[in-house]
Design brief:
Length: 338
Amino acid sequence: MKQYGVAVHGAGWVAAEHVRAFDADPRSQVITISSRRESSAARVAKMTNHSEAVIETDLSRVLDREDVQILVVCTPHDLHPANTIAAARAGKHVLIEKPAALDTSSLRRMREEVAKAGVKSVVSFVLRWNPLFDVIKAQQANGALGHVYMTEVDYVHGVGPWYGQYEWCRTLAQGRSSFLNAGCHAVDALRYFTESDVVEVSAYTVAGSDRFEYPGTAVMICKFENGSIGKALSNLDDRAPYKFRISLYGDRGTMLDNRIHSQTVPGQTDYAEIPTILPDSGDVSHHPFRGEASHLLDCIDTNEESHVSLGNSVNTHEVCIAADISAAEGRPVSLPLP
């Protein structure tokens, strides 16, 4: 069994979960933990019982290491492009926290560099490994829903000073917008369940609080290439518990979170509930990072592209950017963006 050296760069709220995720797979070993502040990296090392990890403050030194094959990018959003491009040029596979980038030019440069280097990439839309997502995909595969003609996903997560990365993600420079900062999870889920790219977006925004330098709540509707339509909500202003709501409407059945009603079940009179783990917490310790880490290792081992690679995720990010343009200019926006 080949073992891969992992470097976790960025030492914020989510970094420790990535360390623990790679620790759980015997194919990987965390070699370095790095951050702009040595104290932050040392704190993550202590939290995860990695006293042997090399603590670094210079990413170039990390990428020069021959015992590191994978870089996990956990820095603030605006630093992801430079970190990813540096990793690709150094021949390192890369796992990028979402959003991968805040603008289209950075996103495309990242995609080009990763493709040129031939390294594997995963964008951390980690909810794809939540058990409810597996349940939904299984119901789609067995025909219980038929053709899904409309999908709705709502990301409702009140974010404030109690949130681990609030101080920087609330800013226009590093958070940018409700959808890019966090609601991109909802957009990714729309695409995952509809199994198609988005070709047109219309959106509205509203400031439901004064906690952000941008409107904290955004809603968008979209058209998919396969003819389906979708709706996504990103509400960071909420004053209630976290919710990630999923609704799929098909010509043979409907699924609302883990409840399903299908014409394939004779005599069904009401929704049937499938007991499973739901994406019902905004705490990163609840997210299935272990599945994500093992998935990247599988892709490297088999030399296959991920279903959530950087290239695959470009449309998700462009949808978020298009939603911001649509809300600002009051018009539908076609994709791909120019």
